[in-house]
Design a protein that fits this description.
By secondary structure, this protein is mainly α. It has a single domain, classed as Ferredoxin thioredoxin reductase catalytic beta subunit (Ferredoxin Thioredoxin Reductase, Alpha-Beta Complex). It is about 45% helix and about 5% strand. Helix 1 crosses helix 2. The longest helix has 18 residues.
Length: about 110
């Protein structure tokens, strides 16, 4: 497995955003921290595990929190952005609203 660095994660975030029609968080300092976490998790587990959540290290158990996680769409529909604030809906991005802490959707037994 080829190691990933934050630039690889940034490219991943850019491609996911373009494909899904999402807006990556415009705060470059914040986004870089998330991308660093994605790269660290990729090198540790072999997949881009959401750095805002604790994974198990098993792809099967973690499959719902591999970036982009299964919860992005419902989080965007309700709050305008995902749990970690990496991916914004276009509407939220245009609104100028602040990203805020939102409730965890992942079932407790998986956390």
């Amino acid at each position: 497995m080829k190691e990933k660095n934050p630039d690889d994660a940034a490219l991943f975030v850019q491609k996911v955003s373009q494909k899904q029609g999402w807006v990556p968080n415009p705060d470059t300092e914040f986004r870089k921290k998330i991308e660093e976490g994605l790269a660290v998790n990729y090198n540790r587990f072999g997949y881009f595990l959401c750095p805002c959540r604790d994974g198990d290290g098993s792809r099967e158990i973690d499959k719902d929190i591999i970036c982009p996680c299964d919860y992005v769409r419902p989080d965007q529909q309700e709050y305008g952005h995902c749990f970690c604030g990496l991916f914004l809906s276009p509407e939220f991005a245009k609104s100028g609203e602040e990203i805020r802490t939102i409730p965890e959707r992942r079932p407790e037994e998986l956390q």
